[in-house]
Amino acid sequence: MGVIMETKDVTVSFGGHVAVDQVSVQILERKFTSIIGPNGAGKTTFFNLLSGQMKPTNGSIYFKGADVTKRSATERTRLGIGRSFQITNVFPNLTVFENVRLAVQSQAKVRYQMFAHFNQYKQFQEKTDEILALVFLQDKANSLAMNLAHGEKRKLEIAMLLALETELLLLDEPTAGMSLEEVPAIIDVIHEIKQQGNRTIVLIEHKMDMIMGMSDEVLVLYHGELIAKGTPNEIVHNEIVQSAYLGGGG
Ligand SMILES: Nc1ncnc2c1ncn2[C@@H]1O[C@H](COP(=O)(O)OP(=O)(O)OP(=O)(O)O)[C@@H](O)[C@H]1O
């Protein structure tokens, strides 16, 4: 099984505070990895390291075998690492369909450097339809992006990442801030992408129960350290994890 991303002893210190402490992990290609841990465990900081928003104080980061430690977030996006909140180019006054189609087109231009002729245009439309179906947004295709509910906006962001042919999706608490009714829909989207099987998903989650059914591998951070990794079943039965969550006092 291939390793798509790897960290070796990455550490981030803020002044004297070590937010991520010598973390070495391997993210397996086309698998679903979840990162869990209590408040302040270092999950978001660790994601910032993977996406390039932040550089480690020490240690190295590899993507498909290449050292990307010094690569910017933009360069990493181009390499195929995509983080949902990075999608700043959602145009509020365009429809859902137009937004995704523009992302599909921009990706095609990067790859082939050509203008969209009629046939290509049709291909763009088809690809856009496919992606909207995958994230269950077909019925909102003609809605303006600005009129979407919060959960639908998150789906649109994921659609944009898919349009940009992101190989590694970094999803930072995708259900955060959602109403209870919206949560199942986003979980369905993630399931669907996992089901397709051609992408690697890394997801940060606070709520353990949400990721247990979906994850191939779970990484547990606690006070910046990787205290456990394993299958969901191994993690729920891991005593160190149990005490970190229940008795460790965050
Ligand atoms: N820019 C920063 N400057 C100083 N300290 C920071 C900064 N960002 C994070 N921290 C600290 O680093 C630690 C890890 O924070 P981080 O946000 O990565 O944790 P988390 O696991 O994502 O938490 P949560 O689940 O609450 O989002 C915390 O103690 C936090 O206060």
How would you describe this protein?
There is one protein chain. By secondary structure, this protein is of the alpha/beta class. It has two domains: 163 residues, P-loop containing nucleotide triphosphate hydrolases (Rossmann fold, 3-Layer(aba) Sandwich), CATH 3.40.50; 81 residues, no CATH class. The chain has nine helices and ten strands. Strand 9 and strand 10 form a beta hairpin. Helix 3 packs across helix 4, helix 4 crosses helix 5 and helix 5 packs parallel to helix 6. The structure holds adenosine-5'-triphosphate (ATP). The site of adenosine-5'-triphosphate has 12 residues, from strand 2 and helix 1. Adenosine-5'-triphosphate binds next to strand 2 and helix 1.
Bound molecules: adenosine-5'-triphosphate
Q: Can you say what the CATH homologous superfamily of the largest domain is?
A: P-loop containing nucleotide triphosphate hydrolases
- Using the coordinates shown, work out and report the CATH topology of the largest domain: Rossmann fold
Broad structural category: alpha/beta
- Taking strands numbered 1, 2, ... along the chain, how are they ordered across the largest sheet? 6-7-8-3-9-10
Q: How many distinct folded domains?
A: 2
How far the N terminus sits from the C terminus, by CA atoms, comes to: 34 Å
Count of helices? 9
Shape: globular
- Portion of residues in helices? 25-40%
Strand content: 25-35%
Known CATH architecture of the largest domain: 3-Layer(aba) Sandwich
Uncertain spans:
none
CATH class of the largest domain: Alpha Beta
**Could you give the order of the helices and strands?**
EEEHEEHEHHHEHEHEEHH
Query: What is the radius of gyration computed over CA atoms, rounded to a whole number of angstroms?
Result: 19 Å
Largest sheet: 6 strands, mixed
Number of strands: 10
* Mean pLDDT rating: 88
